[in-house]
Each structure stands twice: as C-alpha cells, then as structure tokens.
Design goal:
This protein is α/β, with parallel strands linked by helices and 594 residues long. The chain contains 16 helices and 23 strands. Strands 5, 6, 7, 8, 16, 17, 18, 21, 22 and 23 form a ten-stranded mixed β-sheet that branches. A seven-stranded mixed β-sheet has the order 11-10-9-12-14-13-15. Helix 8 crosses helix 11, helix 8 crosses helix 13 and helix 12 crosses helix 13. The longest helix has 24 residues. The protein is globular. The relative contact order is 0.11. It binds 2-acetamido-2-deoxy-beta-D-glucopyranose (2 copies).
Amino acid sequence: MFYSKVPRLFILACFLLCVLVSYTTFYLYHHVPPAYPTASPHSPPDHDLNLDLDLGPPKVVQNIGGNVFEPVPIVTEARPIEPTAAATTTDSPAAAPSPPTAPVAGDDADEDLESGGLYGSERPNGHLTGIEGQSPHTPQPWTTPEEAEAQLQKPLLLPVPSECPKELQFMMQASVDQGLTESVRYTRRRIRPVFSSKVDRNAVPTIPETLLRGETEVDLWDCWDATVRELPPIKVEVPKPYAERSYEHFVFGIASDYNRLNDSIQPFSHWLSGSGAKLVGVVTDARDLMPGDIHRLEQAFHAADINATMVTPIDEKFTTSQNHFTVLIDMLEHSGPETQWFGLLDDDTFFPSLRPLSDSLATLDHNVDAYVGALSEDFQAVRLFGFMAFGGAGAYLSPSLAKKLGDNALKCIEEATHPEGDIIIRDCVYTNSKAKLTILPGLWQQDMKHDASGFFEAGYRPINLHHWKSWYHVPVEQMATAADFCGDCFLQRWRLGDDTLLANGFSITTYRDGLLDQLDLDLVEGTWERAGRDYDFSVGPLRPQLDPDDKHSYLLRAARLDEATGELRQVYVRENNPDMGELDEVVELIWERR
Ligand SMILES: *[C@@H]1O[C@H](CO)[C@@H](O)[C@H](O)[C@H]1NC(C)=O
Ligand SMILES: *[C@@H]1O[C@H](CO)[C@@H](O)[C@H](O)[C@H]1NC(C)=O
C-alpha cells in the first residue's frame, strides 16, 4: 500500500519544483513562464483543463507520467486566501480543488458526510486519512522554498471524486472522507421501492435475489475508466413517505454549553428544520462568552431554518443539569396556545423524523397533566436513578403540567433529591401534581455502550435515538435519510438470498452458511457491553452476540437523498484488514425515484 504512494509523492515533488521555478521566474522577470505541454494519452476524454479560477495569474498545469493533476492556483503575493471563496468555488470537474485543498469541496455532499467521519479517526496505517493537521479548506500560498519543502513533507494528495464517472462520485466522496484502502471492492445495486400502506413492519420478508453480486475492484486514485456492471433492480415493498406537516404544537428545550449547542445544529436540523416546532436553548457557559456570541449562535440555528431562541441561565450558579430543568421557564415564555407538548431533551437526542413522536403523543391527552417518557433499558440505571423519564429519551409535559412545574421551578431545584436534570423534573412532577409517568413505547434512552448494532438490526421503529456520539458512534443523520425517503422504512429489514440481511439505513449483514435460517430474528442480539439480565425487562429476551466469523457487516457511512433525481443513495462499508492485504468493501444501494 505504501509503495503505490511513492511514485505519486515523487511526481508531486517534481511538480511542486516546476511550479516553484515557474513562479520564481515570473516573479523575478515579470513575464509569463513558458507553457508546458499538457496533452496526455491517459487523460479522460471529458477532462477539461480549463484554468478559469479567478485567482490571479499565472497558473500552471503540469502533467507528468500520465497522472493528471488539477490546476493549482499560484498567488503572486504572500497573502492568505479566503478559505471558502478560493478553495471551494468549483462547480465544474476541471475546477476541482487540488492538493492541498479538500477532496470534496464544491459539492453539497461534504456536509452530508461530516458526521460519518466519526468512524474515520481510529483507522490503522495504510489508509487515506494520513492527513493530520492539514486544514482541508486553507490552501497555503507558497512564499519560500522552505515552506514549499515543508508542504512536501506532508502527504497532500487525495483522490479527486470529480475525476470519476458521475455514477461513482458519491461513493468516491464517501470513501475519500472515511479513509478506506486505495482500491476497494465495490458493489452497486439498484433498489426499486414499491410504496404501500399495508407493509407489515414487523415482518422480515424474504427476497430470493442475491444482494451482493457484481463486485468490481475500483482504484480510488485512478477511477476515471472504472466500469460497473448494471444488474436488474431489486423490488422491495416499503411504507409510504411521511406527508409534510407542521409541528408547531411542539416546544423543545435543551441546556448545554456553547460548543455542544453549536455541534447540535447539524443533527438537530435533520428533524427540526422548517418543522414549525420551536427550540429553546440555555447556553450554560454564557458568562464565559464574548458579547454577541449567543446572538451569533442563535443566528446559526436560524440559518439552518430552526426556530431557536438561545438564552442565558436564569441563575449563574446553576449547573448544566439544573439548567436542563429550568429551561422549562423559558420554554413556557416561548409557548403559545398552539403548544401541546413541552419536550425537555438532551443535546444528543435525535429524531429520525418528528412524525412518529407526534403520532404517538397524539394518542395521549395533552389537556390533562401528562408526564411522558421512557425508562433506561438498563435496569441497573433504573435501580440507581428511579422510575422517571430518562433525559435522553426526553420528558414530554402537557401545558397544564408544564405550567405547574414552571411556577415552582426554583423551589423544585432546592428540594430535589438529586442534582440530575431528569430527577429534578421527576421530583417536581410528583410533588406538584398527581401526574405519573406514562411510558411511551418507541422512546429510547439507549443505555447501550460500544456496539449497539443488535438494537439497530432488531427491526425496531425508534421514535428517537440517543448516545449515538458518545456511548456508541453511528452517523445518525446519514442513517435517517431513509426516513426522509420512505418514512417508517428506516431500519426495516429484508432477507435477501440465503445469507444476507438488510437493516435499512444501518447495515447489510451476511451470515455464515445456513446460520440465518437458525436465527430468531424476533430476538435482539446482545451486542452492547453488559447486555444481559438487566436488559430483560426492556428489550429481552436477548440472543447471544455472534462471533465475528459468523457475521460480516457492512455499515452505513453516507447517504444522500437527491432532490433533483429523487434517488436515495446509501453507501455501506466494511473495513477489512489492510495488514493482510485485504481491500475494504463498499456497497452502494441506489433507491430509485419514489
Ligand atoms: C460551529 O460549528 C461549525 C460546524 O458545524 C464550525 O464550522 C464552527 O467553527 C463552529 N463555531 C464555533 C464558534 O465553534
Ligand atoms: C418562530 O416562532 C414564533 C412564535 O411562534 C413565530 O412568531 C415566528 O414566525 C417563528 N419564526 C420562524 C422563522 O418560523
């Protein structure tokens, strides 16, 4: 793997030297350096080496040894380039950013892929992510030979997705971002959804078609002539997409520090943007901030089309947990006659869609005192903290109860038996009303550490997810793109062929010969830490965790619903052992226009 990089680095070294010489020539003698021939028999025919980036003369394109390099803008003075303007104003393939700029700039997919990067950080050597310390959006203008040399010390090159055939570009963007082996074993299948209102979501239909066939090896560094065999699409029956709807009957509240609130904007926007629901956030470290910071944070939420209000704690001395409760006071202020539910959430509570929450709460009466939520799945946590709405699943209060709690908020903080936010809420409910906890099936605290795959492959229809960026790591936004495409089909399961299970939006799993026939797919595989008797009351009975040899999983890393084509693309990845010379595997499912 290392050896294949050597020629590229060498070529880059030559290239940079030429650039330096040209640049020096220009700078010293004030005339344009001689042009270098750029024709190459290996250039992709449609590759347009047009240098219309508006970055000032001169620009040089070098083409050595059949490798096509993207145009590198040379700046004539040592001044910082506006990071976004210069590096990302690239719409045509020819203007794609070159090293050391980002491989995915200029495409809206890079935002979609961000949370998927959670996986990428712990990769062993031999992968593409050896770019530590390199700020992808900040090209460095070279001023001195020393600096140019310093640039050479870093591995600068990444594959450029725009050089691939169009059909491969999304897979490429996903792979580049995730640090996969330089070549991957790639399978692409088209899925033809049949929308129906009669889908039995608990069934695991068997589809005779084999999902994983037609594999091709694709060199991510040299993909322009890669071809993938088209196979007939696979038909699956899925529920209808959720109809657009306004959720103005919700007011949500969170309390967290500035950075975590900022980090929440993107995942929250998946379910909150343009929904009509309101969000109130207490910025717990407000007193450490600069004037204007809170306003800027609020603006960032607004820019994401979230109707958010950011407020300071009502008492500087309050802890984050206490603010988690007192946010209710601000939520009441921002509520109206349309408000039916006050949802107190953790900053890592995630809804694949608001629709199931809204539908489930609609089965309850919001005109009486109502306190709704879910216990931890771990009975040890229930023993420890008690019978209450655990924070990650959210505590949902009807307006009359919310008002009672708001009126007594400061007293409740003083009298709470424990300083945790969800315990203060519980105690305050029990001391100020006769409301008791209503457990709403589908809400999850997700007290599951390390490997939550058993949960995601169990056929559940979770209203919410939690702990996805701490106890375990999954790219929830990418996963939940399925819910945008076909609603309740998120995590729906199908058996394909003899040995493969698709859990839509989470994984494709192939099982050892004959094993899938023996598994009881109604039972949850106990994959997480301490999965055992303490989970019986919530998700049991469990089936034992399978041996890694029995089960090969491809996990969803990236997804995009293309507004123009109506297609949903999902990229599932299996990382193999590069030390054994194994290539990583990528499966792309293309769900046809709905
Ligand atoms: C807020 O988050 C965005 C990414 O979503 C990041 O670019 C920005 O720097 C963050 N702002 C602060 C002040 O941390
Ligand atoms: C946010 O909510 C308030 C109160 O309901 C409403 O007046 C306002 O129009 C909303 N803003 C946006 C941008 O939706």
